[in-house]
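Reading a protein record of the kind used here takes only a little practice. Think of the row as the fold of the chain written in a discrete alphabet. A record is reproduced here so that you can trace the correspondence yourselves:
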Amino acid sequence: MGTLRLLLGDQLTRAISSLSDLDAETDVVLMVEVAEEATYVRHHKQKIAFLFSAMRHFAQALRVEGITVDYVRLDDPENAGSFGAELARAVERHHPERVVVTEPGEWRVLEMMRDWREELGLPVEIREDNRFLATKAEFGAWAGEKKHLRMEYFYREMRRKTGFLMEGREPVGGQWNFDAQNRKALPKTITVPPRRRFEPDAITREVLDLVARRFGNHFGDLEPFGWGVTRAQALEALRFFVEEALPTFGDYQDAMKTGEPFLFHAVLSPYLNAGLLTAEEVCVAAEREWREGRAPLNAVEGFIRQIIGWREYVRGLYWLKMPAYADTNALEATRPLPDFYWTGETEMNCLAQCVGDTRRHAYAHHIQRLMVLGNFALLAGLRPAEVEEWYLVVYADAYEWVELPNVHGMILYADGGVLASKPYAASGAYIDRMSDYCAACTYSPKVKEGERACPFNYLYWNFLIENEARLVGNPRIAMPYRTLAKMSDDRKAAIREDADRFLGSLTSSYGT
């Protein structure tokens, strides 16, 4: 035969580089469900089901084209359980002249691939992932020798490169970023559109049964399962977002509401990160809504910034800095991950709500992830590796290339400011302003100390006290440090006492 083309589970794009010159007469596409990838961390049950079902549907679509697909299911008794072992078995079956694969999204898998040529005894071509709008080389050239890599400046370069929301060399509306207009609290009377969900078909139902049997001890609820698993369903999810949610997305993208985990967010990241949608097409769809007068500029700019700004930026940073990046711990945080991240059992209602949403849907929007779950992890000094693994486990859109920089750099400031210009720390007042969580909480964001005080209040100041030597020179948090300098010793002692009491009450059985 000709070429054996290995397609990974998050590479479900027909135009991906590994399939670009496919010859249907001689080539075979290999797709494998392997236990190693499903269990290297104990992924949320819905994430495993989403990927396996999407893979099976994609294989079916390739076969309809007349392409030969060698598909190995997880429950195949001959399944060897890893990419390398399954690739070796496929080489024995098909005797290809070479193997072609698109580079993976995780450093550990790339390290495996680099050994395959020697292990298999035939050429293995690892191609660049052409689904991203910036190549690794382009990001590296932009980064240069910069000590701090600010997304905003990279984003402007991406706007110029792609032409999205541009008039010549200038941004439409006269400014690059409309984030200041995207921080409104959610009105009580606003109507949230019911989210587009998809009824599982026979293929998905078979996968759900498999996941229930094999991964019943993994985190999260398996059902109800409503993710799209085909290209057509992903396109329908995109249509729903731009028509029903995008017009209001900008104003309320930072808001949080009990019982409304999706609000006006796109909820497209699982489809983007698995390949069912491309970055370019979702930006084209969003920009069209603005140009045709159906969505305001602040909403469309905010969405496009997430795609060609943050998404491209964190991917570039990941490959530029790995593998050493993951080992940094600039704030020397060592506290173990509390059990409530898994159970949701905490009297802090905001955390209980966000963990509950995550458990039910394998999803939480970016403010829940950053300013509730992540804010607590930062203020409590949780060990970066444990927090990062949790984020990788629980979300359907989580892959290390996107999860690690966001958590390590943006949430935990563990890289010492390579990504973020300051730690994203906040007291209970922020959560109270942007959500309705506090009204039903045991604690009060208006109480500053004592057992009824919102723990975010004293943990915020305790964080500043504990990290004063590391952070006091940061100009972006100069104001809170000036306030801290004016506090009496008694007030500081009360803060430390409240923080020690609360943190000492947390239980952790991480890894059990």
Summary: The chain has three domains: 3-127, 136-197+230-321, 340-504. The chain has a mean pLDDT of 96.
